[in-house]
Amino acid sequence: MLRLRLLTWDVKDTLLRLRHPVGENYSAAARVHEVHVQPEALNKSFHQAYKAQSKHFPNYGLNQRLSSKQWWVDVVKQTFRLAGVHEDRLLATIAESLYQEFCSAQNWELVPGARETLRQCHQLGIRMAVISNFDKRLEKILSHCNLRHHFEFVLTSEEAGFAKPDQRIFQKALHISGVAPHQAAHVGDSYVRDYRAARDVGMHSFLLTRAGPANHWELGVPKQHVLPSLTHLLSVIEKG
């Protein structure tokens, strides 16, 4: 049994996941303005736009003096341009509505076991916090999904100035909490950004696995560090 003083969490696809594919949300937002684009086409163009934006302007372009909102507005606009929609004024309106829409609870659902696992960790007296590659909307999203009260603090990559797997975002969380690395653990769904990155700063970590075949990195993770579901965590930790 692992004795812990601090448990940090990734959010997207660990505690919360999108209720619908991105393309469905984008297509619905466009239909309000009588623009009809298939969700599948928008899904494809979104992934292209997001990948390019992340490459050229990592961590919301903070080092290039972009705001996270402008970063996302540009992603939305490019998504629609790649799908054949080019009217700038219309794209600006759609981008603004989508930026606000993704703050609401209606676009998010809890990963199975999330609420119960957080509640029981809280009852055990384990301090909890968030370390997430996300923008400043995350506080509001967690509040709207009735999860914020579980966490002492929420550290986003936008606030920290560093994105996982950069060790400095984990070190900042440890500094805020005043907890030594060996007394802390991190839970996430990414081998590189969560499991390996946390261990590189001396923390314990657990990898939440998805359905389907494991990738070659995950195959090397000890079984006791793998969570087939969030509720499995409760059998391997206790308050330190």
Can you describe this structure?
The structure is a single chain. The chain is an alpha/beta fold. The protein has a 6-stranded parallel sheet. It has a two-stranded parallel sheet with strand order 1-10. Strands 3-4 form a two-stranded antiparallel ribbon. The termini are close together. Helices cover 43% and strands 15% of the residues. Pfam families: Hydrolase. InterPro entries: HAD-like_hydrolase_domain, HAD-like_sf, HAD-SF_hydro_IA, HAD-SF_hydro_IA_REG-2-like, HAD-SF_hydro_IA_REG-2-like_cap, HAD_sf. It comes from Mauremys mutica.
Q: Helix share of residues?
A: 40-55%
Q: Give the overall shape, derived from the CA principal axes.
A: elongated
Cα-atom radius of gyration:
19 Å
Reading the helices and strands in chain order gives: EEEHHHHHEHEHEHHEHEEE
Number of extended strands: 10
Number of helices: 10
Termini separation: 10 Å
- Describe the sheet with the most strands: 6 strands, parallel
Widest β-sheet, arrangement of strands = 6-5-2-7-8-9
Brief overview, please?
This protein has helices spanning 22-31, 39-56, 58-61, 68-82, 88-101, 114-124, 138-144, 157-160, 167-177, 191-200; strands at residues 2-4, 6-9, 16-18, 108-110, 127-132, 154-156, 184-188, 204-208, 226-227, 237-239.
Features:
240 residues; alpha/beta; six-stranded parallel beta sheet; two-stranded parallel ribbon
